[in-house]
Design a protein that fits this description.
By secondary structure, the chain is an alpha/beta fold. It has 16 helices and 24 strands. α3 crosses α5 and α7 crosses α11.
Length: 472
């Protein structure tokens, strides 16, 4: 028997490959399915089942493509109603895979169809629990996502179901069972997830706040406390996972169309496409296509795309590092952005060589900002980190407008004022500035290295606070 966790850091997502005696199972696959097929081929195994723990909100699963390419059966737990062929398992049903068994455990709460899968090894021992978004390491799934697509649900009702699922279905299981969740720290599907991606159930019973002895009312209060609004693309991804989607092959073929500078410019004008530049922030700042947006491939690319590009059907044109074109189209497709029209052949150098207009963003060091602040104490410093980060530590006198809520708080920024913009390390600040520059804000200056560089310089007055839970 083989169990492999396939973890994708950008999405903080864990998919799973299980193989026994020539048969394999994939749990919660990502959109690109070829890596799973190759694993099974290398093991001389046939993929028998694609097990879905629920209709995911934060990414588009590869279940449909994987089933079509391999003949595997898609399995959901009770109450799921997908718009495609799938097997809806019953609670406590046993699925046979090679010499092992997988028990279906319906655990509504994160969503109503949420289901965990309990692995029983060749000797009949219950060894592993694949918990999806029901139970994380250090947390449980937020119970407010399904209500976005199911009108009669409330987060309180879902939290109540989650309490019952945890206490009646999961906590009675043996302490030595290994918990394999669908997400880790950085995912918006929970609020307190650990950086660890597996643990024993026994340790979680001792350390996970949501599994401590408490009444249902107290559980509901604790689980709902401090939840921030989910990214806008979540409901769209849920619907794609329920209704179906384009083949990933078609999406990649269209998105990796190489366009000359003239073709690129013509398509941008004709389709009103968003020009998305995925290069490193500081490289982008030195030269980019006017009105393009920078979301770098070296950070949490897909979640920021989902949070900031509000129309999931938006036509997109890519400027990437050479050789990264297919990767970026794939990463967009993972979160439901299927309308990539192509990429700039030869990149920004080809654009410049063709005599097209370019733009720049001024970027300064923390030491340079300190000198400016010494001369003018009223200098506007804009912190675009989350509220919790700002409250924890910030430059005294700085303003805070989180990148997450840039569209809602745009009116707070004065076009006539100069702002020195920073985040934690320089990734988010460049996204922020590029979005505003495309909207006509020309007086924003990036601080290289962000708050990390500011603090390390020891030239600023830093204020420290204890972060309230409601700010998380």
């Amino acid at each position: 028997m083989k169990i492999e966790q396939i973890y994708t850091g950008c999405l903080a997502q864990g998919a799973y490959y299980i193989e026994s005696n020539g048969e394999a199972v994939i749990i919660d696959p990502l959109r690109e399915v070829q890596p799973y097929i190759e694993k099974a081929t290398n093991d001389n195994a046939k993929i028998k089942y694609v097990l879905e723990t629920h209709f995911h909100a934060d990414f588009v699963s590869g279940h449909i493509d994987l089933a079509e390419k391999t003949g595997a059966k898609i399995v959901f737990g009770p109450t799921a109603k997908p718009n495609f062929n799938a097997y809806i398992a019953t609670d406590n049903e046993i699925l046979n895979v090679g010499n092992i068994q997988i028990k279906v455990i319906h655990t509504p709460g994160h969503t109503m169809e949420s289901t965990c899968y309990l692995l029983i090894d060749e000797n009949g021992k219950e060894t592993s629990l694949f918990t999806g978004d029901t139970l994380f390491i250090g947390d449980v799934g937020r119970p407010d996502l399904a209500q976005k697509v199911v009108a009669d649900l409330t987060q309180e009702k879902l939290a109540s179901h989650l309490y019952e699922s945890l206490h009646s279905k999961i906590m009675p299981l043996a302490n030595d069972i290994i918990v394999y969740p669908a997400h880790g720290a950085g995912s918006a599907c929970g609020k307190n997830m650990s950086k660890e991606t597996t643990d024993t159930l026994g340790n979680q019973k001792q350390t996970n706040y949501a599994l401590q002895p408490m009444s249902k009312a107290d559980f509901i209060e604790k689980v709902l406390d401090g939840l921030m609004p989910p990214p806008a693309y979540f409901p769209e991804n849920v619907l794609m996972n329920i209704k179906g989607y384009q083949s990933i092959d078609k999406v990649i073929n269209k998105g990796t169309t190489a366009l000359t500078s003239t073709e690129f410019e013509l398509i941008a004008n004709e389709t009103n496409a968003l020009i998305l530049d995925t290069r490193d922030a500081q490289i982008f700042a030195k030269m980019f296509i006017p009105n393009s947006i920078n979301i770098g491939s070296n950070g949490s690319f897909a979640p920021w795309v989902g949070a900031l590009i509000t129309d999931i059907k938006q036509p997109i044109l890519l400027v990437t590092d050479e050789g990264k074109e297919e990767e970026m189209v794939t990463r967009l497709a993972r979160v439901g952005y299927e309308n990539t029209l192509g990429y700039l052949k030869g990149g920004i150098d080809a654009w410049k060589k063709a005599g097209k207009l370019t733009n720049t963003i001024k970027s300064i060091t923390a030491n340079e900002l300190a000198n400016i602040l010494d001369k003018n104490p009223n200098t506007n410093i804009l912190d675009v980190r989350k509220k919790s980060e700002h409250f924890s530590e910030h430059v005294i006198g700085s303003e805070n407008i989180a990148l997450d809520y840039i569209n809602q708080e745009l009116s707070a920024i004065d076009k006539n004022k100069t702002y020195y913009v920073h985040c934690a390390g320089g990734y988010r600040s460049m996204i922020f500035i590029s979005i505003l520059k495309a909207r006509g804000y020309d007086n924003l200056i990036d601080v290289q290295g962000g708050f990390s560089a500011i603090k390390a310089s020891e030239k600023f007055q830093i204020s420290n606070f204890v972060c309230p839970s409601t700010m998380l």
